[in-house]
Amino acid sequence: QIQDLTFLIKNCCLTELYLNNNELTDISGALKHLCSLQILFLHNNELKKLDKTVKELKGMISLHSLNLFQNPLAYDPNYRLYVIYILPSVQLLDRKLVTQRERESAFHLYNPERSLLVQSIAFGKRVNSPLGTPVRSRRCIQPSRKLIMPSVWKHSDNEHLLCSFCRVPFENPEDAVLVRAMTRSLTEFSSVDWNKVATCQERHLQNKAEQHLEKLTVQFR
């Protein structure tokens, strides 16, 4: 029948706290100092304010197990995703493992602009898509797939027109990614095996014409 948590003020080193099956209605200002908590059970209480309750736990970077079920706040339609987004360290929520798919859904729901940025820019490829449109990610683009290009592209033989036509919408966003990658500038690195390079003294003693060294060149698109 615990209703107040003022007795926890000096217990700043707690790692486990079991407050389930009580009559708590508000935990604001009572738990935020417990930065070492790893396990917190608050299920079967009377906690109603989801936002205030979860933000009270935001500073607990070591918290990995949390129970909030059987509280009025748990009936919020986005309750689970909201908790996962605000408390990224939690791995076990209401006795159920937090999945990577749930983390991605929570991130997309509560931070849509950054989610779109992460989806559209990665490892040298960019896909412009409207907000809320899922972008499928692939490790590589299949070269054998036929490229579906606009008709204006097919009649262009001028290299200078290539970049201007890159902005023409494609039927498939992945085709635009492929074309963009093909038209990027190259970075070139060259090196030689310095163990085979003769020193000044060796060249003077051998009195021979300097041989051309084998040069290794690597290009990065």
From TrEMBL:
- Alphabetical list of SUPFAM superfamilies matching this protein: Outer arm dynein light chain 1
Q: What InterPro entries does the record tag this protein with?
A: Leu-rich_rpt, LRC72, LRR_dom_sf
Entry's Pfam families?
Answer: LRR_9
Q: Which Gene3D superfamilies match?
A: Ribonuclease Inhibitor
Query: Which PANTHER family does this UniProt record tie to the protein?
Result: LEUCINE-RICH REPEAT-CONTAINING PROTEIN 72
The protein here is known as LRC72 protein
Task: Tell me what organism the protein belongs to.
Answer: Tachuris rubrigastra
Q: What is the lineage of its organism?
A: Eukaryota, Metazoa, Chordata, Craniata, Vertebrata
